[in-house]
Amino acid sequence: MKLYKVQKITEALYGCEECGADGPLAELTLVPLKADRSHSRKVELPESYLAQTGIEEGKTVLFGADGKLRKYVKVVGAIIVKDGRIFATQRGYGEFAGGWEFPGGKVEPGETPEQAIVREIREELATEIAVDSYFDTVEYDYETFHLSMDCYVCHVVSGKLELLEHEAAKWLGKGELNSVGWLPADVALVPELEEMLD
């Protein structure tokens, strides 16, 4: 997986030669985040696609499995375990409202993934957790962005997992993990979690 930073976006001048099927094209200058940063890459995309996906200068992007350029979003997920069950939350807002997920969120600049997951659970669920171990990383291409989610097995240190941002929550044991409508990236972890709960 090769990540790029959008160094510059040059908007079209709206001439016929700069229009694609989806309207005016913009030229993006992409610089690799790792390795030889002198090898920039230029691509043209419809301005409407940039607006839809939120791709802008300074953002990190990558080319998905289908070859489409997507914004890159790095998040963490907490697999909170207690008495042989796993805590799942239902999103109460946004594009994926109603879908079930492992609670968590974005990694802020300067944070380790472990620090990010502790902070996110404190903010979303008013609960202090401790990270026990790294579990897995999920890479998933949504329509408008690529999600990279580092997942950690955690336990509650203090607090009652209050729903400050989520619609609902459930503790799911072995054999119950498929009883909710997981978001596409999260469902990829279910088979491994079934084995973990053996």
Q: Overview of this structure, please?
A:
The chain is an alpha+beta fold and 198 residues long. The protein has two domains: 61 residues; 124 residues, Alpha-Beta Complex (Nucleoside Triphosphate Pyrophosphohydrolase). 16% of the residues lie in helices and 46% in strands. Strands 1, 2, 3, 4, 5, 6, 7, 8, 9, 10, 11 and 12 form a twelve-stranded mixed β-sheet that branches. Strand 7 and strand 8 form a beta hairpin. The longest helix has 13 residues. It is elongated and about 55 Å long. The protein starts with a strand and ends with a helix.
Key attributes of the depicted protein:
single chain; about 200 residues; alpha+beta; Nucleoside Triphosphate Pyrophosphohydrolase; 2 domains; 12-stranded mixed sheet; 12 strands; about 15% helix; about 45% strand; elongated
CATH architecture of the largest domain: Alpha-Beta Complex
How many separate domains make up the residues? 2
Structural class: alpha+beta
Number of helices: 4
Task: Give the SSE string.
Answer: EEEEHEEEEEHEEEHH
CA distance, first residue to last residue: 33 Å
Oligomer, anyone?
Answer: single chain
Major beta-sheet overview? 12 strands, mixed
CATH level 1 name of the largest domain: Alpha Beta
CATH topology title of the largest domain: Nucleoside Triphosphate Pyrophosphohydrolase
What layout of secondary structure does this protein have?
Blueprint: E1 3-10, E2 19-20, E3 23-32, E4 41-46, H1 47-53, E5 60-63, E6 69-82, E7 85-91, E8 100-101, E9 104-106, H2 113-125, E10 128-141, E11 145-158, E12 166-173, H3 184-187, H4 190-196
Parallel strand pairs: 6-11
Antiparallel strand pairs: 1-3, 1-5, 2-3, 3-4, 5-6, 6-7, 6-9, 7-8, 7-12, 10-11
